[in-house]
């Protein structure tokens, strides 16, 4: 009996190991399925964007109080060591405000500087390695935030987050555009990503404030660090960034400086910057204005932006649905969004209480959802029809557009309020959005740039009639728009104008 029990245990252990091995194989097979892999990639990217925006906004209720506590400790130490100095006074509040503004802006400024380099790097090596690098850097910056005990360390952590975001955000959005090649699918996938961005930005202040008050400074950052580590492990497991050899055959993307001088891309970038200015400028200034004009409590200030998440998701949903039915009107949806933002921004100073303030803030976020959801897929489409279908640099330009607004916001907005007033700030932002909306008319004819017969459509419709077509079909399934097309002076794909017989004649050479 004694010898049978170890034998039974060994058999059961071997059976469980074989079952685990079989399940691992099944999981690996499931991951290789293109549709499931695209969904997993979308989940990885959405978590990365959620984390980045939560880390960006979670410090809003934490840092002001924490910096005051640090200064209180420093003053106590000075008083303790030099008790004979009777001229010691409390550090002026303006110094704390300046520190907060610089700390908030440091992330966007470094991200702004790194993005041109990260976009080119992404175009060279693919999307998976930069995504993993970005997640790793964000994980380290979050840990530093958790254990920082002075302003210099907080500044280092904030700057590191900008470095990680320059890689993770750009490569994540570019990967979605690369995997979802159909316009309707691309709009839907980017809309989901934007919903996670808004959720992270709007839920982070209440999340950080509650955990900071009841559990201490480190807990919110440690929670975000754990989620970031899990997402990095998922990225390493599913995408296998360091074992992928397809990047050796990637087409050479258009340089970022050439994309920047493309008039259509420049118009889109300007719209993305302008529409995000109200949000970027209000976040550091609205709390003081609420305290002064409506004597708002701390919980009201913390909950100011949270209801705006729902109209933002509604705006994403509406734009995705409309774009699926009327894709040629993307410019119009963006223009309507900018008018919404402008009108809502102008009505913010007229609000007298917390309930009234929710309405224009919801309008601003609804308008931003319209602009972002309409114009981000347009960037991918412009690259497809006017350049090479490699998306790192073009979405680095989009990230630069956001960073311009968020780099200026914490530094410039407070000075504008001090010199001109809160009312003039909002009127100026609203007027800028309304005046920029007509510029999107320049995108009216973008949909006509779409080639009538692309190589991909021809192969799908006519079937694989030769070795050349078969190889090309397999490459298209693997790389999703991996071939470069030639663009004529009118922006039309001339590859589709070549005769099918010419392709057949070149099949022998290719073989």
From TrEMBL:
InterPro entries noted in UniProt: MFS, MFS_dom, MFS_trans_sf, MFS_Vesicular_Transporter, Tet-R_TetA/multi-R_MdtG-like
GO molecular function, one term: acetylcholine transmembrane transporter activity
PROSITE patterns: MFS
Example GO BP: chemical synaptic transmission
Topology relative to the membrane: Multi-pass membrane protein
Compartments, record wording: Membrane
Pfam families per UniProt: MFS_1
PANTHER family in the record: GH10249P (PTHR23506), VESICULAR ACETYLCHOLINE TRANSPORTER (PTHR23506:SF13)
Entry protein name: Solute carrier family 18 member 3a
Lineage start: Eukaryota, Metazoa, Chordata, Craniata, Vertebrata
